[in-house]
Protein: 2-dehydro-3-deoxy-6-phosphogalactonate aldolase
Organism: Herbaspirillum chlorophenolicum
Amino acid sequence: MNSNPKLLEDALRRTGLIAILRGVRNTEAEAIGAALYESGFRIIEVPLNSPEPLASIAALRKSLPADCIVGAGTVLKTEQVEQVKAAGGELIVMPHSDGAVIRAAKNAGLYCAPGVATVTEAFAALAAGADVLKMFPAEQLGPHVVKAWRAVVPREIALLPVGGIAPHGMAAFREAGASGFGLGSALYSPGLSADEVRQRAQAFTAAWKALA
């Protein structure tokens, strides 16, 4: 199956928020995924340094509607791409911008969001086939860097700051040209119940809608 660019575009347009479930356990993934989906999230990633991440990805993919993209984060090696695909994952998210991993993701028919911290990395990632750009770490880069990048990165390319994003901090990034956000511990951390995740997710989606 080749990735359909429109599905990713639609997901980001609906709610430009990506849930990062670092540390989630496969026994709780389905309930937490449902809470996120009901709150408006349409992109969910399970970092590969979580417990049994492939089982969690499989559980999410089987339980969520087709308009929700499920994938893996912290993908570091090309061989991990096929493992994610076999589990039902559709998205490869990376902390870095290794062209070999990006190309492996695209050859496998998956979406790819590499992590980039400079304009040089950004354009190299796009040349390798990246679908969107994960600006990481957002705390270090800041809204002023997003604004500078937006002047040279084509408007149709999504810029997604990740790292330290909270509901009250999204406005400055959005005004600078951010297309959406990857959300980590402010949305989910190990031990939170599905109801607690739902409350946090609703706070994020409310903040997102207020920026529209």
Notes: Residues 166 and 186 are 6 Å apart (CA to CA). The chain is about 45% helix and 15% strand. The longest helix spans residues 194-211.
